[in-house]
């Protein structure tokens, strides 16, 4: 056995020891759940066709299906992973009534199904429930077909004709999975590589799109890219090639799985991305990303670290554990922004965490690339038609602000003191957005006196920017959280000695922490607000 084969086997053993590969009975359990869901939606669609009083032959032919996607759809799930599955129905079954009412009631009456929730205000509306103890996320896509077969080809452009926007968003997730699975030359090698890279990203603190890092879809495409470039390579060579390729990648040149994808026209916002990654299915858009210059640099550092470690792969004393060594976040900074979240009941905590996490990009991430405070104030004055001196000296002029980053604030300033207050408030927001290094890890504080269930995030603060008015930041952040699940939040600037215990929730303990609410997606481009300087970025729904 050559050295690379030996390294591949030792890596597979390492993955197994870490619990990354589910037991056969776990796979069988998920397969049974998916098959049961398929049977339920088949019964559901025939009931809908009957209620619509369609012809008998149409009722008999009526069909809908369930298509897994995400980590389970790609075959890289763990024993703690949930199931992401898309319900695809024909034109006779609406989302608002038939999916969220009829199918929802059928699921509630199904043995083994518990905690059915309809999340209608999500970026992609879905139902969330537990089936035999496994969490399931179930969005819906309505095709303009009279019947949807179980082997429907969603990569056929015909399937996209006449569908609504929510269906298109839902379908894109499955279509990306199907494209990747069709393109990779060796499925088993791709799955093993992706498991490794996801584990590495989580251990090193660079996993999580909401925090400005690499999401699951980014890592899947990057892993598929390496597999396509090295079709005959074993796992150890693929891992080494991954870090070699992306530690030296000439960003912002996009990553695309096929050369023809590069010929499509890029829009302005795509060109602004630090790490553009092309989706592998038509219309070949870019993956949505919250990556900023700050988080981009963190990712690059980890790519370089991985490259340096795997360059020694042939050394006799090489150990895979060094690549996956957890990042000790406490040693990186002296000061931290501590975000303390709690809820009155344990069952409510997951939804509250997910809601807060879905708001992180709107306040923290999107402003990290802007100019400094002085330039910001000058830009503020220029954007409003006033010079810097005018803003400071003649603040009694009637000014109105309606910022997409601060949707709950609408300022009408009549007095110089109020104008100065706004400028100061603006500077504080700009400062915190430029100061934070978001840490995706969720912590618990051992020995905390708090009686309520809670979780803590600790984000590193750059030494030169550890001082700002935390009360103003917390006030604004609270206003960003209106309209969703409720809970308690407290922000504080703390020293490293007050960093919480490294004990954190195991993956999947709180399934509700998965943010599925109205956050940025492929169609929510970051666009400059009309009412504030160009470097303040908000989301515009288009």
Automatic annotation (TrEMBL):
UniProt GO MF annotations: ATP binding; metal ion binding; poly(A) RNA polymerase activity; RNA binding
Cofactor: Mg(2+); Mn(2+)
All residue ranges annotated as the Poly(A) polymerase central domain in the record: 189-325
Domain Poly(A) polymerase nucleotidyltransferase residues, every copy: 7-184
Keyword flag RNA-binding: no
SUPFAM superfamilies in alphabetical order: Nucleotidyltransferase, PAP/Archaeal CCA-adding enzyme, C-terminal domain, PAP/OAS1 substrate-binding domain
CDD domains xref list: NT_PAP_TUTase
Keywords: ATP-binding, Magnesium, Membrane, Metal-binding, mRNA processing, Nucleotide-binding, Nucleus, Transferase, Transmembrane, Transmembrane helix
TM segment ranges: 210-228
EC number, UniProt record: 2.7.7.19
Main location, first listed in the record: nucleus
Compartments, as annotated in UniProt: Nucleus
One of the record's GO cellular component terms: nucleus
Biological process according to GO: mRNA processing; RNA 3'-end processing
Magnesium among keywords: yes
Family: Belongs to the poly(A) polymerase family.
Protein name as catalogued: polynucleotide adenylyltransferase
Source species of the chain: Carnegiea gigantea
């Amino acid at each position: 056995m050559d050295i690379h084969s030996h390294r591949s086997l030792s890596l597979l053993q390492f993955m197994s020891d870490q619990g990354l590969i589910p037991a056969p009975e776990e796979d069988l359990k998920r397969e049974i759940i998916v098959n049961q869901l398929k049977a339920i939606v088949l019964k559901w669609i025939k009931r809908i066709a009957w209620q619509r009083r369609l012809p008998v032959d149409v009722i008999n032919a009526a069909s809908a299906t369930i298509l897994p996607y995400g980590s389970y759809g790609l075959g890289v799930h763990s024993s703690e992973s949930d199931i992401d599955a898309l319900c695809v129905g024909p034109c006779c079954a609406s989302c608002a009534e038939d999916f969220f009412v009829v199918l929802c009631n059928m699921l509630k009456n199904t043995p083994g199904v518990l905690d059915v929730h309809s999340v209608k205000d999500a970026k992609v509306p879905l139902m969330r429930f537990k089936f035999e103890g496994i969490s399931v996320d179930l969005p819906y896509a309505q095709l303009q077909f009279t019947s949807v077969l179980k082997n429907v080809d969603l990569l056929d452009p015909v399937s996209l004709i006449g569908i609504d926007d929510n269906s298109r968003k839902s379908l894109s997730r499955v279509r990306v999975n199907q494209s990747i699975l069709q393109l990779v030359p060796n499925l088993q090698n791709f799955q093993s590589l992706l498991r490794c890279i996801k584990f590495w990203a989580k251990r090193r603190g660079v996993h999580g799109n909401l925090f400005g890092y690499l999401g699951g879809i980014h890592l899947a495409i990057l892993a598929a890219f390496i597999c396509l470039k090295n079709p005959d390579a074993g796992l150890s060579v693929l891992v080494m090639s991954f870090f070699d390729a992306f530690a030296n990648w000439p960003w912002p040149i996009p990553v695309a799985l096929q050369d023809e994808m590069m010929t499509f026209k890029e829009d302005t916002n795509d060109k602004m991305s630090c790490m553009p990654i092309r989706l592998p299915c038509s219309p070949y858009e870019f993956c949505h990303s919250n990556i900023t210059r700050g988080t981009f640099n963190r990712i690059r550092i980890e790519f370089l670290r991985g490259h340096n470690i795997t360059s020694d792969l042939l050394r006799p004393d090489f150990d895979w554990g060094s690549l996956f060594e957890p990042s000790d976040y406490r040693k990186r900074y002296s000061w931290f922004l501590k975000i303390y979240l709690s809820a009155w009941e344990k069952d409510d905590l997951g939804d509250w965490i997910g809601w807060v996490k879905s708001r992180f990009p709107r306040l923290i991430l999107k402003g990290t690339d802007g100019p400094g405070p002085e330039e910001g104030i000058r830009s503020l004055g220029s954007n409003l038609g006033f010079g810097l001196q005018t803003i400071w000296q003649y603040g009694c002029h009637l000014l109105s602000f309606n910022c997409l980053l601060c949707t709950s604030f609408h300022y009408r300033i009549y007095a110089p003191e109020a104008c100065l207050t706004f400028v100061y408030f603006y500077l504080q927001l700009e400062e915190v957005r430029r100061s934070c290094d978001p840490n995706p890890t969720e912590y618990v504080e051992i020995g905390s006196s708090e009686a309520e269930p809670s979780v803590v995030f600790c984000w590193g603060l750059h030494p030169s920017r550890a001082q700002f008015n935390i009360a103003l930041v917390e006030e604004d952040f609270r206003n960003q959280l209106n309209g969703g699940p409720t809970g308690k939040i407290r922000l504080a600037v703390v020293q490293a000695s007050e960093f919480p215990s490294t004990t954190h929730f195991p993956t999947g303990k709180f399934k509700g922490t998965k943010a599925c609410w109205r956050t940025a997606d492929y169609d929510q481009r970051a666009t400059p607000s009309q009412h504030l300087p160009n470097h303040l970025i908000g989301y515009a729904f288009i």
